[in-house]
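Case study 2.
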Amino acid sequence: MNEPGAPSLVSLRQRAILLAVLCTLLWGSAIPIVKISSPLFGIETAFDRILFAGVRFTAAGLVTLLVARFLAPNGAPPSLKRAASLLGLGLVQTTAQYVCFYLGLAHALGTRSAILNTTSTFFTVFLAALFFPAERVTPKKLIGCLVGFAGIVLANLGGSVGGAFSWNGDFLILLSSFFFALGSVISKRLSREADPIRVTGAQLSLGGAVLLCIGLIGGGALRSVTLQGLLLLVYLIFLSAAAFTIWTSLLRRYDAASVSVYFFLLPVFGVALSGLLLGERIASVQTIGALLLVCAGITIVNRPTASKPRQTIN
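Prediction:
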């Protein structure tokens, strides 16, 4: 069993695998839910979306902090140094990521954005190696990531994936993926010394508050409010709080590459749920083939190394 404060090099157990899949399922469900809720709130511009994201993540952070307070009512408040670190994490993983994503999405092709968004897995593998020397980049990790990435490309064949690279679109989507990966690695380090629930709540509420300010300064607005829209917003708040908390907890205990490779499932779930909820056409053969490649990539990354016995966490 690994020490709680040390970077873990263990393979994911069955429960951890289910939790990683649950995270990507929740994030994947956000894709069609955001599309459905946008007209219900009168969202039209990129800054409208940033403002909406600010409301969603600030509320998710506050809910998460309330849960943490309920579970550990006697928890000590963070020190000034740790508070500054949590603010930095919020600015990276919530503010910077979603500002780049929403602004980039306004100038990027949807199918290519789905592909570029999964590059966060590659960024996580290399950044984790920089932050945690024990999590070195291995051929197994690279091969697994490439196989999973091939699945995402297959899922998007037939869409608008060609065309020239755009700096105000594609580059911002890539930058968004980088910020998600950087935030994942930073949260892994911070959660080694603090409660992952509090880390998640602080970064979501602080980063979300900055998103709110940016949205308002940019002229964003929620031009209408309906009961259906509010119910969908409550769901988005719940999934953000749950997914980020679980993801941070998994990163705390396991090798970053073993966890982040499951992010390849997100666009697969997004496509499938968009078909169910939005009636969008799904190329079933491509989707099944993509899912098989993604699963193969996940298996390669998480396959125990033959020279070392597989460790588990009780």
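The longest helix spans residues 14-40.
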